[in-house]
Every structure is written in structure tokens, then in C-alpha cells.
Amino acid sequence: MQFSVPQFVDVEDKIIGPLTLKQFLVLLVGGVIIFVLKGIITNFFLLILASIPVGGIAVVIAFGKVNGRSFGELIFSASSYVSDPRSFVFKKDSKINEIKVTKEDVKKTQNEGLSRGEKLSRLSKITYILDQDIKKERELIDEKFVNLK
């Protein structure tokens, strides 16, 4: 049995004509503000000068996108970032003990490792493998890792 998987889940529904509900409400608020300005400002030229920025801001908030996010979401995120309190407090953890390493400890660990001759032989083997062509390298790898297959 196959189930259909919904696609375009992040696309908002068009409720009022080609507009989503958010776009319609933003444009409605811009229109109401312009209507109120019409009642306040009697000079037609000043009304146009005041209405252009209000209408422009409403259109940008309704239809503008920044990095795939609507401009309204961006404004909301920016305002919550500015208004939410943040505090960064450093607390030194007293449970962590300091590890003291002496020169003697370093010498002991160096002596416990491979001898100089073993290190050089390993290095020469790695150099030899790296210098071989791809065919030889594959043969060497296959020889070494036969047991893993």
C-alpha cells in the first residue's frame, strides 16, 4: 500500500485571491494607516508624501523576502533578538583537575614507543607504497587486507 507524501508543506494557502492571510492583513493595516492619515492631513501633496512610505513599507513587509524568509518573519526575529534578555556567565568547573606532565614522563613515553629503526622501516614502507603506481598499490592493499574480506 502506498501513501502519498504531501509536498510544498511550507507554502502558505492563498486565502483572499492571490494573497495569503498574512499578506492581506499587512496590506489592510497599511491601508488603514493611510486612511487615518487622510483624515489627519488636509493637504493632498503632503498626504501623498506620507502615504508613499507607509504603502511601500506595507508592500515590502507583505511580499519581500530575505534569504528565503519573509520580511515579516525577519522583523519579528530581529525584534525578539533585541528585546529578549541574554546573559553569558562563565563558571569555572572545580571538578576538573589539572594534569601535570614532567620531562621524565615525556621521556618515558618516547622510550616506550617504537625504536628508531622500526620507525624508519615503517616510514620507508609507507614511502614505497606511495611511490608505486595505482595497480601495484591495489595489489599491496589486497595482500594486506585479505583477512578482512
Structural features, described:
The two termini are 38 Å apart. This protein has helices at residues 21-40, 44-63, 71-83, 103-112, 116-131, 134-144, and strands at residues 14-16, 19-20, 65-66, 69-70. β1 (14-16) and β2 form a beta hairpin. By secondary structure, the chain is mainly alpha-helical. 60% of the residues lie in helices and 6% in strands. The chain has six helices and four strands, in the order ββααββαααα.
Q: What shape does the CA trace take?
A: elongated
Strand order of the largest sheet: 1-2
**Main sheet summary:** 2 strands, antiparallel
- The helix content, as a percent range, equals 55-70%
Question: Counting H and I runs of at least 4 residues, what is the number of helices?
Answer: 6
- Whole-number average pLDDT? 79
Distance between the termini: 38 Å
Return the domain count.
2
Order of helices and strands: EEHHEEHHHH
Low-confidence stretches: none
Number of strands: 4
Q: Calculate Rg over CA atoms.
A: 35 Å
Structural class: mainly alpha
Beta content: 5-15%
